[in-house]
């Protein structure tokens, strides 16, 4: 599995996609950071970075599908999926290798953004408890989006369609909070509970306040596991249909 993970990670950097995604994320992060500084009225900058991440979530969900569409959709379009599925690795190992490779790109993006808290801590004051929790919450939400994007990529051989569907699905993950409090849907207890469980804005808000609740951690892990299991089922079904 490690060899496939390494191959997948290298493939991102052998194309301009990884560089574009990281550069665009850093550009939006920088612009938001500069705007936040411009709004500071006091001479001492007290900062938690939660507002910056809130703004960048919406840019973020339009960037990640550029990475996830490569996992299976592009493989199928290029005709390399058959060779991949005939490898000694089982489907679970293949899915996990692709998931971890994409998660590594996300980790690199977040590591690059640490430049700004470091600079802020030199010239101002950073609320470290909130900052650390915000990074953890953003990373976990990113993993949820990656797992969702990989699942959608496994359903189609059209990379552009995989990108569009992933962006819509990730947007729905953010808007799930609004649906859960809808007067009609809230009247259906089971459906309301399911929507609340997948409410990512609420989870991220708690993390951004410097708090970590077990229920929110479990919620993120459950979402990741559900999407990865669906991906494994989707790929396994297609694998057996070829036999």
TrEMBL record:
Molecular function GO labels: ABC-type transporter activity
Domain ABC-2 type transporter transmembrane span(s) in chain numbering: 43-234
Compartments where found: Cell membrane
Membrane-crossing residue ranges in chain numbering: 12-34, 46-67, 99-119, 125-151, 158-176, 217-235
UniProt cross-references to Pfam families, sorted A to Z: ABC2_membrane_3
GO cellular component: plasma membrane
Key words, A-Z: Cell membrane, Membrane, Transmembrane, Transmembrane helix
Topology term for the membrane: Multi-pass membrane protein
InterPro entries: ABC-2_transporter_component, ABC2_TM
Protein name, UniProt field: ABC-2 type transporter transmembrane domain-containing protein
Source species: Ruminococcus callidus ATCC 27760
